[in-house]
Amino acid sequence: MMKTMRRLYDWVLHWAQTPYGVAALFILAFAESSFFPIPPDPLLIALCLGAAARSYRFAVVATVASVVGGMVGYLIGAGAWDLIGDWFFAYVPGVTPEAFERVQGLYDEYDFWAVFLAGLTPIPYKVFTLSAGIFSINFGVFVLASVMSRGLRFFAVAALIHHFGPPISVFIDRYFDRLAWAFGVLLVGGFLLVKVLL
Predict the structure, then answer these.
(1) What is the pLDDT of residue 176?
(2) Which of 38-42, 62-66, 71-75, 174-178 has the least mean pLDDT?
């Protein structure tokens, strides 16, 4: 399984060396929101390193594609889950009945923040897009949380590479999961603190 994922990862990265890198980024970010196992960040990093002046443009592409893909995931969950849910459970990594049960509990209490954290951190975003439709989360809330979190995630990567260049890419690649978790927790904690104080 690990060898397969590594080959898939390398296949994703190779698109940065072709004229189709931006199109591949769009397709990857779109697909990762509902079924593809590799996140778009490695390809985004590679594209930004190859053309730092276009970093923010790449971030826009990744954000738009990811949010649109998330909306498609929502619609799959809302309208077609009874027909294809078993396929997702069988073949899509991270999509399990147990994960959906945990997510439902999060939605009951933190609908916006649950989607926001999933979009920002390494939590499988696809579990939240599909389950948002299944559990009938408010579509506007879902889209807003997705735009904010995915945009923040991709623009942060683009900004770091735009300003610091290749040296920061190694740091991002090595510590991305931890950085995303820390930033997400701090951001949500700050909002909750303001809410309590006010």
Answers:
(1) 57
(2) 174-178
The residues near 2 (Cβ < 8 Å, ≥ 6 apart) are none
Helix (H) or strand (E) holding 114: helix 97-120
* pLDDT tens per residue, range 135-193: 899 999 999 999 999 999 899 889 988 888 777 666 666 665 665 556 555 555 544 44
Is residue 50 within 8 A of residue 22, CB to CB? The reply is: no
Query: What is the per-residue burial (b if ≥16 Cβ within 10 Å, else e) of 108-118?
Result: eeebbbbbbbb
Q: pTM for the full model? A: 0.82
Half-sphere exposure of 115 (CA within 13 A, CB side): 29
| Residue (of 109, 118, 115, 123) closest to 139 by Cα position | 115
The phi and psi torsions of 37 (rounded to 5 degrees) equal -80, -20
Eight-class DSSP state of 121: S
Q: What is the DSSP string of 160-177?
A: HHHHH-HHHHHHHHHHHH
